Amino acid sequence: MKKVLCLIAVLLLLVEAIIAECATVPTTTTILTENNLSILEGRWEGSAVFARGVHTTITLDIYNDSLPLKGKVSIQNIPREAANIFPDGFEGSGWESYFDTGTITDKGGLMIRGRGGNFGEFSLVESESKRLVLEGESKLDGWFYLWGAKGAATLHKRRR
């Protein structure tokens, strides 16, 4: 009897694992155009990795919904040893820069350029699940250069 109960428990766990695997939310990259720029307006927050494995937090604020896009990029929690390699040592373990030339690339991505030759390119990724789209679940995936250090970032739109 105990063997049968254990076998049933194992089978239920296996079925649960299979269902969970099938329930993953598929995503799609949204092509940005001048007609849907309002998706980008607001605050995006997430994580970034740059240089040689330096993990930080990043915030992207986009202030408007027409070209050229304007906003601010902030990178926080830069470890002191990593911050020291950048100009002015990124006092306070953070960095921020404003931009006013945000554009849409030929492939429908977001391109921003800041002072000092810093720039980044991001793709808008949205959930195909109707429930998550209604809740505004979307993210920006992309890469950037910060004073010559290449990085990657994933940002999620902050709900109001």
Helix content: 10-25%
Q: Look at the structure and give the mean pLDDT.
A: 80
User: Strand order across the biggest sheet?
Assistant: 2-3-4-5-6-7-8-9
Number of domains: 1
* Share of β-strand residues: 35-45%
* Shape, principal axes of CA atoms: flat
Number of helices: 3
- Can you tell me the residue ranges where pLDDT is under 50 for at least 5 consecutive residues? 130-134
Regarding CATH, which class?
Mainly Beta
Judging by the overall fold, what is the CATH architecture?
Beta Barrel
What is the CA-CA span between the terminal residues? 55 Å
Nearest-angstrom radius of gyration? 20 Å
Written overview of the protein:
Strand 6 and strand 7 form a beta hairpin. With 160 residues, this protein is α+β, with helices and mostly antiparallel strands. It has one domain: Lipocalin. The chain is flat and about 70 Å long. The chain has 3 helices and 9 strands; from the N terminus they run αββββαβββαββ. Residues 130-134 have low confidence and may be disordered. Strands 2-3-4-5-6-7-8-9 form an 8-stranded antiparallel beta barrel. Helix content is 19%, strand content 44%.
